[in-house]
Amino acid sequence: MGEVATLPDRADELFREVQRVAAACQSELSVSREDDFVIVEGKFVVWDDQGPLDSYSVFIGFFSDFPATSPRVYETEGRIPRDLDRHMYPSDGACCLTVWEGWLAEVREPTVEAFFRGPLHDFFFSQTYFEANGEWPFGERSHGVAGVVEAFSEVLGVERDRQVIVAYLRLMCRRHLGGHAVCPCGSGRRLRDCHRDQVEALRGKVPRELAERMLRQVDTIKRSKKTP
């Protein structure tokens, strides 16, 4: 078996990957490093089908365990109001890009490039579109637990019901799936006679470790419509 990479090794690898991606698709960004924290600063350019559309001054911090931990993203010129309705956390001005565990479950390979071209670009493109049109181009999620429920319901393909989502995730977290378990859909039937194929497919799509993270997120936090 190969040796597990140490924290400095992972930080070195991440630093090189961020440098490569920034140079390839966002040349106005600079990349530096402070210990195990990779820092990206400068102008992030937003594109549409016609080419460059807009740009934002940003600070992005990557933790060395990326993609396990979501990068911290800030718009640094105060152009975007610190308001939840603009998907900005009022407490510290951080950008609310996405429900991270939902993105990890949906994306095929959660690389730095996928992050740049996906959640990061979509966030700032959406801000530009909203400024021009007063609406969000990709729709809008609720704040807090409701937004997490919405994201996870899409990942799992189930209704937007917190209890149903928790029931599915609990089965997905098991090491072994027995057909005698109660189906998480709420029918009261045994899993083998109901949605076993669906649960098995989800277990193949979402790794157990990620399912455990998703479960902790919806099973331990209280309902809130406005608190991020």
UniProtKB/TrEMBL annotation:
Pfam families assigned to the protein according to its UniProt record, in alphabetical order: SEC-C
Protein name: SEC-C motif domain protein
Source organism per UniProt: Mameliella alba
